[in-house]
Amino acid sequence: MIIDSHVNLHAPQFDDDRDAVIARAREAGVGLMVEISDKLSTFEATHGLAMAHDDIWCTVGAHPHEAKDHADLTVDRLIELAARPRVVGIGECGLDFHYDLSPRAIQAEVFRTHIHAARQTGLPLVVHTREADDVMAGILAEEQVDGPFRFLMHCYTSGPELAEKTAELGAWFSVSGIATFKAAAEVREIVAAMPADRIIVETDCPYLAPMPHRGRRNEPAYVTHVLDKLGEIRGWSRDEAEARTTDAFFTLFDRIPRPAGA
Questions:
Q1: In DSSP terms, which residues pair with 4 in a beta bridge?
Q2: Burial status of residue 192 (CB atoms within 10 A of its CB: 0-12, 13-18, 19 or more)
Q3: Are 158 and 133 contacting, i.e. CB atoms less than 8 angstroms apart?
Q4: Which pTM was predicted?
Q5: Which of 36, 60, 69, 190 is most enclosed, with most CB atoms within 10 A?
Q6: DSSP string, 105-121
């Protein structure tokens, strides 16, 4: 089964042809997609997509760029929204010190709120991190001591040290179209060292279109290029890459029933 673990189909880039994009994904063999929440103001659109399509599920959360507008977000509110049908994860959340669109202290506080919700619900946490390796490692390690929770390092492009530390904490990792970029040799080296049973794939569409579509709007149908690159990096056949990522996905997102034969 081909799965795109991270799509943003609610984004305005898809307003003119959203249904066609979803249809192309299915034609390309994509059997399941996870629609990601980036802020609570768009959660109804995110959740609506999951409710309207049998092959789309969703998360609830606030991206670190949006943390400044979610400083009063509570664990109880996330838990309430996570109890809705077809919500299967908490996030996207985390730290982004590259753009610093929200104050770093608020990013960290809102991130911890998401962690506490993931711990209490048992749902996996979808983690965004950029240029915040040391702080991210510290928060994840501290919070794991307080109580275990499962988490996914989405679209991993940070350094090898953080990859190693989070792998030791039990992280899953998702590989995106960045792995296909010519200049992404370090990313490919890190992908080669990731735990084989905790790797999944994503597009992060409409962003980060893989080769040969780089520079265009990304869409879920292109996740097949990411899967092929992952197989090349790891020395896996296409069938093996598909089987391994499918197993890893359903182990992490265990609220989603695994279809027979998948």
A1: 33
A2: exposed
A3: yes
A4: 0.97
A5: 60
A6: HHHHHHHHHHHHHHHHH
